[in-house]
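Explain this fold:

***
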Amino acid sequence: MNSSKLHFLILILFISSINPIFAQQPPSFTLKGKIADETTGNPLEFATVALKKMRDSSLVSGSITDMKGDFMLENLPPGGYFVELAFIGYEKYTGKVVFRPQGSAPVNDLGIIKLKPSAKLLEGAEIVADKSFAMNNIDRKTYNTDQLAVTTGGNVNDILENLPSVELDADGNVSLRGNENVTILIDGRPSGLTGSGGKSLLESLPASAIEKVEVITNPSAKYDPDGISGIINIITKKNKLTGLTGSVGLNTNFDKGYGGSAAINYRKGKLNLYSNFGYNHNIRYSSTESYRQTFITGMSPSILNQDGEGESNNWSFNIKVGADYNLTNSSTLSFSSIYNQSYRKNDEFLWYDFTGDIFEPDSLYRRDTEGTSDDQGFDLELIFKKNFKSPGRLLNLQATSSVNMEDNEDNFNQQVFFNESIPNLLFPAERQHDLYAEENIIYTFAADYEHPISEDKKIEGGYKSTLRNIDNDFYSEYFDETTGEFINNTELTNRFVYDDGVHAVYAQYRQSVGKFGIQAGLRSEYAERESELINTGENFKKDYFSFFPSAFLSWKPDLKWQFKASYSRRINRPRTGQLNPFANYDDPLNIRTGNPDLDPEYTDSYEVEGNRIFNKINVTVTLYYRYTHDPIQRYRFFDVTTGIANVSFQNINSAENYGLELILNGNVFKWWSFTFSSNLYQNTIDASNIEADLGSSDISASARIFTTFKLPYQSDLQITYFYRAPFEVPQGYLKDMHMTSFALSKRLLKDKLTATFRVSDPFNSQRFGINLDGPGYTQDFIRRRDTRTFTFALNWRFGELRDRDARPKRESAPREDMDMGM
C-alpha cells in the first residue's frame, strides 16, 4: 500500500472515531413570533408564551412579549412541542411545532399571531379559555375574576377581599397595601354611584358582572393622580363576539338573604348590544363594644362602658345597558348606562353606662336609632374610538355624567334606666329626628391620543376636565315636651354646598431598547374648589396648580427574569365629610367635625420590582417607598370638662411608608394552583405640629393565600385566608384582623350550569378594633359585622356565539413542520 492511500485510510478512521463525539452535541433551534389583537392589530405587550413537551406537557421554556408584541425562545433542543400563547381577556392559542435534527431550519418564525377576545362558546363547542388569574404589566397587575369561585353569589367587595395587596375591614372600607387612601374607578372613570362612603355600588354590583380588576399602585401620567396608595379599576363585562349569549344566576344566603343576576349580549353586523342586571337582599347584624377611662388630677378615674347591637336590612339592584356601533371598519361609537338603587333599614341600640363620672355619676341610659337610607343614581357614558391605518395609532374621545342622590332619615330615642330592663320614667325620653339629603353630580370630558413613532417608540397625550357638585342638606329637630311637637334645632341644621373642578393635560413617551423598556410622562393640573355654609353664608375657596411626573423602567435580561422600577407623584384631595365644619352628633359623646381649611396632601411614590418565572411558579418581589407631604389625619381631642370626645381632621407634618411585598402564583400540579401574597411594611407619622411628640412608627404585616383544587367529577374547591397584624397609629394602635372563606363548585350540563356552595368567614373572626391613648383618657373599641354567611348559587349560561372565523388568523403561512390549529 503506497503512502497516499495509507494517509487517506488513517484520515477516514480518525473522522469515524470523532464522529460520535460530535453526535453528542445536537443542534439547537430558535422560535420567535409576534402576538397582536385580532380586531385592532395592536401588539399585545406582556402576553405569555409557553413551550411544552408533547410527551408529558412539561414546561421547557417560556417568555413574555415586549412592547412590540415580539417574543423569542432560544437554545431549544430537537423534539415535538406544544406552543401556548395567552393574554388575559383573549382565547388561549395552542399549536404544535417539531424541530428535527435533520431538515428543520435553525430559526422558526411564526409570524404575526392574532388572538381573539375570550369566549365561552364557539360554534356550539366549549372553548376553555385558560386565562391566568394574575397578569403583571409594566404599570399594573390585572386579575381575571372569573376564576374566583369564592365570590360566586357575592358582590364586588367579595372580589376585592380576595385580591393581593387589597384589604377590606369589617365596615367595608377598602385599603391598598394598608392605606385607605385609594381611588376606585368603574370602567376607568370615577362614579358618583360609589357614594360618599365609597361603598354603595360596590355592595350592590354582583361579582358575576365583573370581567377583571386592575390594581395600579404607581399609575402613569395618563391616569388621574388621586389616591395616595394607587388605583383600583373595576372593569365590567361586555362580550365582543357575534351571536346571542347570556347567563342567569340565583343565590341564597338562607336566613340572611338572597339575590340574582342576569347578563345578555347580542352582536350582529356593526351593532353590539349588551346588558347586565343584579339584585341583592341581605340582613347583617353588628355589635359594638367600647370601654373608656377618664383621668382628672386628684380624682378617681371615671369609666364609660358602651355596648350596642344593630341590624341592617338591605335591598339593592342595578342594571347596565350598552351598545357599540361600528361607524366604519376603524371607528366605533359606544354608549353605556348604569342605574343603581339601594334601600337600607337600620335598627340599633347603644347602652351608656357611667361609673364614678363627675358629670354623669353612676348613670345608665340607652340610645335607640331607627334609620332608613334610599340611594339611587345613574352613570351615562359616550365614547368615540378611532383606529387609524397605521397600527397602534388611536384617538379616544369620552364624555360621562354621573348623578347620585342619597336620602337618609334617622329617629333617635334616649331614655334613662335603673337597670337594663327598667326605665327611669322620672327622666323623660329625649327624642331627635334627622333628615339628610346628598346630591353628587360629576361631569367629565377626556381626549386621549396614541401615536407610534416606530415599532419601538410611542407617544401619548391627552386632556381631561372633571367638574363636580355636591350638595349636603342636613335638617335636625328635637321633641319639645311642653308643646308636644318637634321643633327645628337650629344649632344642628345646616346645608353645605361644594363645587370643584380639575383640568389636566398630560404627555408620555414609551420606547423599547433591546431588553429595556422605558416610559416617562408629565401631567399638569389646575384645580379649584369652593364651598359654602348656606346657613351662615361662610365661603371657603382654594385653587392650586400641581405637576405630576412619572417614570417607568423595565429590564428583561432573559426569558425568566424581569425587573421594573417606577416613580409617580400622587395627590389626595380632602373629601366633603372632612371639609364640612358642622358637627355630626349621631353619638353625642363622640362628635365628628370637618375642617374647611384642609390642604391636599402630596405623595412621592417609588417602587422596584423583580419577577422570576420558575418551572411552575411565578415569583414577584416589590420594594416600595412613599413619602407624603402634609397628610390629612384624624385628630381626637378629649374634653375632660364635658366628657365628650371630638374628632376633626388636620394637615400634619409628614408620613412615610415603606415595605416589601411578595406575590407567588403557582400551578404546581394540574389539580392544584395557588396565589400567595404578603406585605411587610413600616408606617412613620410625624404630627408634632398638632401636639408635641405626637406621632407613631411601627412595623406591621399582612398575608393572603388563595388556592384552587381541581376535584373529580368536574368540581373545584377554593380556599382563601387573610391576616393583618396589629400596628401603631397616632394616639393608639389598630388590632389584628383575619378571615377565611371556602367555596365548592361543580359544573353540570356540559359546563353550562355551575352550582357553588360558599362559606364566608365561618369563624366570624372579622372585626375592626382600635385602642386609643390620649391626654386624660384611654379607650378600647371593637366593632363587628356579621360577615359569616352560607351561600348556595346556581349560574346557567345559554346561547351560542358564532365567530366570523373559527380559527385564529395568521399573517404568515404555516411551515411544513408546524400545525397551528386550535
Summary: The chain is about 5% helix and 65% strand. Residues 4-24, 119-130, 801-822 have pLDDT under 50 and may be disordered.
